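Reviewers asked in the last cycle whether our approach scales beyond single polypeptides. To address this, we selected a multi-component target totalling 419 residues and predicted its structure end to end. The input consisted of the following lines:
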Amino acid sequence: MRNPLRSEDAAFRFLVVSIVGAVIVVVAATINVWVGVAAAILVVGGVTWWYWTRPSPAAAPIAVEGTEPGMHHILVIANETVGGGRLRAELQRLTGGQPTQILVVAPALNSHVRHWASDEDGARAAAAERVEASVARLASAGLSVEGQVGDGEPLQAIEDALRTFGADEIVISTHPEGRSHWLEQGLVEEARRRFAVPITHVVVDLEAEDEERRA
Amino acid sequence: MAAHAEPAPHGHGEHHGPPVPHYSSRVTPAVLGMFLFIGTEIMLFGSFFTAYFFVRVVAGTPWPTPPFHLPIFVAFINTCILVTSSFTMHWALTSIKRGNAWGLRAGLLLTFLMGLTFLITQVIEYARIGFNTSDGGFATIFFCLTGLHGAHVFVGLTILAFMTVRAFRGHFSPEHHHGVEIGGIYWHFVDVMWIVVYTTVYIL
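The resulting structure, written as structure tokens, was:
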């Protein structure tokens, strides 16, 4: 949704839109009262729909300060797949022996109702558990890794993390196609559009990994 | 016996003091504040427009009730002045973004003067309109809606006055002009509300 009063520019455009809309309604009302009512409904509905469906303009590039120079930084966004063997293997490949700092962010996935009711404790606790387990597993594989819980919306979680962690690349870990909400929402494509950082997509099939482990 | 405060039981390494804020940056405090402001304004103007709807549509009160007349032409000129003031406001902000401090000062001063002209014209209109708030539902709603908007213009003028003084003192630069940005948003919002008020009260 685009906020019509987000900036002076946006507010000025909204004013121009309001003037044009008012002129349309007045002209329609001079023809007939009901034509005027219909025009008013169409104008208000159309403008509301436009602002509601238009995405917010891309955020300005995020300035990152305080990251350690000479160190490779990888930001990992993952949720249920955060402990997957495929992700671990991919991270080991990406580090390639160079000094690397990894930050694992698990978005605190929550329902819309709970989010708007600020009932986030359960979601954050569950995400924290996943992060802790993942950090321990990655650290045992010899990787330098830290973890944190992020916003429930994965793109926002990436943006938040980039403000304090200057990532050289981002790894997004998801379930396979057909089982991943993130893929269904076009998360990887949207992240590639929004962030000017190389993005690697890792597909982790936890069920297949479990079967392999049992076999 | 000496009084002393018992520390609350804590686990080792537990956070002391106020809880760590962890609001979502999905909605920044500034944007949330703006949404809340818009929400309150919609409710405020909405209640007055609801009264207008009931008086004019449900009760079928003639608009304007004879023998009164609304000064549509004067209000139209006033509308043009107010809308033009939004353009000068936009010019002022565009100027400071480009480093043109005199453009900012001229734009803000013109905006203030036009806003003041609008308000003075409205006061003169009230004095000469020929009816008062006690002259029926039509008159009450007319003064309430235009008066409510006039109050917003007054607040906008106060903000503009501070902005103009600050501009002449050189407080704004291409990098730092947040004070003009916020005031500009408010001024455009006031203009948008006037477009709605003028259309519904004077024209339709």
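Chain A has two domains: 8-53, 72-214. We regard this as preliminary and will revisit it once experimental data from Aim 1 are available.
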